[in-house]
Amino acid sequence: TSTRDIMREIVHLQVGQCGNQVGTKFWEMISDEHGIDPNGEFRGESELQSERLNVYWSSPITSGYEMRADETTWVPRAILADLEPGTMDSVKGSRIGRLFRPDNFAFGSSGAGNNWAKGFYTDGAELVETLMDITRKEAEVCDCLQGF
């Protein structure tokens, strides 16, 4: 196999309220395009839909994680972060909320209240280690990481 034929993986990061709102819409659209239902099962009608699933999703066989469902479940290779826990609750409660790996949610106890310094120096700084750890774990199970 040439390097051109190797499946390249992307780890998706969505941060903050806006990032999580846009990211959730992204996952809704790409799931529909690739025939992935809200439970992570492939329901596509075409072989083209399943051709590049490994770019954004971890398959149950290659994920390196203990899967939360049967062996047909596809899980987004996504990391979701925000200082405000309410944003994460709205993602979890959305139509596709069950798709995401629960370990890949990182959130604070209260938001920064539009205070940049609070988000950067105090509350946000407390989440950096957690985010780096989650990102490292996702990157380690990739065979050919292309980017973030």
Description:
The protein has 148 residues and is α/β, with parallel strands linked by helices. Helix content is 38%, strand content 14%. It has four helices and seven strands, in the order ββααβββαβαβ. It has a three-stranded parallel sheet with strand order 2-5-6, with helices on both faces. α3 (85-92) links the parallel β5 (78-82) and β6. The protein is globular and about 50 Å long. The two termini are 24 Å apart. The mean pLDDT is 85.
Summary tags:
globular, 4 helices, 148 residues, 14% strand, three-stranded parallel sheet, alpha/beta
How would you summarize what this structure contains?
The protein is α/β, with parallel strands linked by helices and 148 residues long. It has helices spanning 16-34, 47-50, 85-92, 116-140; strands at 9-10, 12-15, 57-58, 75-76, 78-82, 105-107, 145-147.
Helical proportion, percent range = 25-40%
Q: Averaging pLDDT over every residue, what do you get? A: 85
Stretches where pLDDT is under 50 for at least 5 consecutive residues are none
| Main beta-sheet strand count, sense and barrel state | 3 strands, parallel
| Rounded Rg | 16 Å
Q: How far is the N terminus from the C terminus?
A: 24 Å
Output the helix-strand order: EEHHEEEHEHE
How large a portion of the residues is in β-strands, by DSSP E? 5-15%
The helix-and-strand class reads: alpha/beta
Q: Rough shape?
A: globular
Number of strands: 7
Assembly context of the chains: single chain
Please work out how many helical segments DSSP would assign. Answer: 4
Widest beta sheet: strand line-up: 2-5-6
